[in-house]
Amino acid sequence: MLGINRTHYLGSVASPPDLKYTPAGLAILELTVAGRGEVVTAEGEVKHPAFYNRCKCFGKYAESLAETLQQDD
Questions:
Q1: Within 10 Å of residue 22's Cβ, how many Cβ atoms?
Q2: In the 8-state DSSP scheme, what is residue 4?
Q3: pLDDT by position in tens, the chain (length 73)
Q4: DSSP string of 10-73?
Q5: Structure pTM?
Q6: Residue 38 burial (CB < 10 Å; 0-12/13-18/19+)?
């Protein structure tokens, strides 16, 4: 059985989404999501480091997201 990973990000679109198609017609959407995490240090201090994650979506989900996502200004 094929394993599928799912990840949820809360952040902003940091680069314009790029929708491409494979020769077989599969949609692939690539984008970067930016945000701030929350980390508690060993001393109990709360820090909010920035993160940038490259994301890829496939198929109908990729096409749907490409229509709705916009880069934040």
A1: 9
A2: -
A3: 566 677 777 888 888 899 999 999 999 999 999 999 889 999 999 999 999 999 899 999 999 988 887 544 4
A4: -SEE-S--EEEE-TT--EEEEEEEEEE--EE-TTS-EE--EEEEEEEEEHHHHHHHHHH-----
A5: 0.71
A6: exposed
